[in-house]
Amino acid sequence: MNYGIVSQEQLEAIEEILSQKLIKLGVDCAIIIDMAGNIITVKDNSKSKYDIYSFAALAAGNFATVDAMAKLVGETEFSLLFHKGQDSNIHFSKIDDELLLITMFGRDISLGFLRLNVVEAIEQIQKVWDRQE
Amino acid sequence: MSFINLKDKVVQVKIVYYGPGRCGKTTNLEYINRKFREQIQSEMVSLKTHGDRTLFFDFLPFHMGQIKGYDIKIQLYTVPGQVKYNATRKLVLKGVDGIVFVADAMEKQREKNIRSLNQLHENLQAYKESIFKIPLVMQYNKVDLKDHGIPVLPISVLQQDLNSKLQVPYFEASAITGYNVAATLKKIISSTVVSIQKKLL
């Protein structure tokens, strides 16, 4: 496993997928992080300003905690998480054992529609990511 | 594992402050946060219990400038020190690049330091890392307490207890006054960056 370095070409391909599948849909921000809390890439609608480094650290911790809870109840994993707020929502979905896709979106996108697009985006990202191994 | 972004030329490095409960890991980060304010773009994140003890981790992103055209982003984490929180300690250690072991120099904490270091060794093994290979710096904290009449272990004893096999760089420090906090940080950053460079070349 050598996920520490990603080529420029791969990152551009992944960013393109995030733009096409999520940002175009009206998502505020899409972030890919690894389970150690590092940011792999970020795409946003250039309106929102989040402190993404702290966000990534907390998100990785959050996901790891939920993963540990899954094991306690006899599940191998909970592969997605959803946090609902008044004006903004956060959706977490596992890409593979090392990567997590986080999507932040407002009230005008339905969760179902977002989930469909997240699944498609993840399939495409997996293809790009697997090329490095 | 550090993450290197070739497109934006950014290297993300994860450094964890590890040690027994109440040894001063969070105090180290709080001092760094105050002292190096201009190099830190965001607020320090602390997940605490009501009693002000670290529940999950503290997080402080730290910008170090450039090396060979690459932006170095240092991410400082602490672990919860309390014995019962080992599961969360282990989670924070995932993907770690460098460790500062903060030992409590107070005489009565002698055994707790040793236990905590042993557990660090085990926790790293779970990630197939070795305490003998990962960049590590020892910090013997609270040395200022001897001026207040509180018995403090001599450095030779701490070295014998904790660093006789590891033989890593060490510092006497006082996180509350800031004595050697920056020196510890500089040392761990330089050893970690050198070790990442070695892995890449």
Model description:
The complex is a heterodimer of chains A (133) and B (201). Chain A has one domain: Beta-Lactamase. Chain A has three helices and six strands; from the N terminus they run βαββαβββα. In chain A, helix 1 packs antiparallel against helix 3. Chain A is globular and about 40 Å long. The termini of chain A are close together. Chain B is globular, with a radius of gyration of 16 Å. Chain B is of the alpha/beta class. In chain B, strands 1, 2, 3, 4, 5, 6, 7 and 8 form an eight-stranded mixed beta sheet that branches. The model of chain B has no long low-confidence stretch (mean pLDDT 93). Chain B has a single domain, classed as 3-Layer(aba) Sandwich (Rossmann fold). Chains A and B meet through strand 1, helix 1, strand 3 and helix 2 of A and strand 1, strand 4, strand 5 and helix 2 of B.
Number-wise, the strands of chain A total 6
Give the distance, in angstroms, between the N- and C-terminal Cα atoms of chain A. Answer: 7 Å
Just name the CATH architecture of chain A. Answer: 2-Layer Sandwich
- What is the radius of gyration of chain A? 14 Å
**Class based on secondary structure composition and strand pairing of chain B:** alpha/beta
| Residues in β-strands, percent of chain B | 25-35%
Structure classification of chain A: alpha+beta
Number of helical segments with 4 or more residues of chain B: 5
Largest interface by Cβ-Cβ < 8 Å: A-B, 26 and 29 residues
Strand content of chain A: 15-25%
Give the count of structural domains of chain A. 1
How are the SSEs ordered, and which strands pair?
The complex is a heterodimer of chains A (133) and B (201).
Chain A: E1 5-6, H1 8-23, E2 29-34, E3 39-44, H2 52-72, E4 80-84, E5 89-94, E6 99-105, H3 111-130
Antiparallel strand pairs in A: 2-3, 2-6, 4-5, 5-6
Helix pairs in contact in A: 1-3
Chain B: E1 3-5, E2 10-18, H1 25-35, E3 45-48, E4 54-67, E5 70-78, H2 86-92, E6 98-104, H3 110-126, E7 136-141, H4 155-162, E8 170-172, H5 181-200
Parallel strand pairs in B: 2-5, 2-6, 6-7, 7-8
Antiparallel strand pairs in B: 1-2, 3-4, 4-5
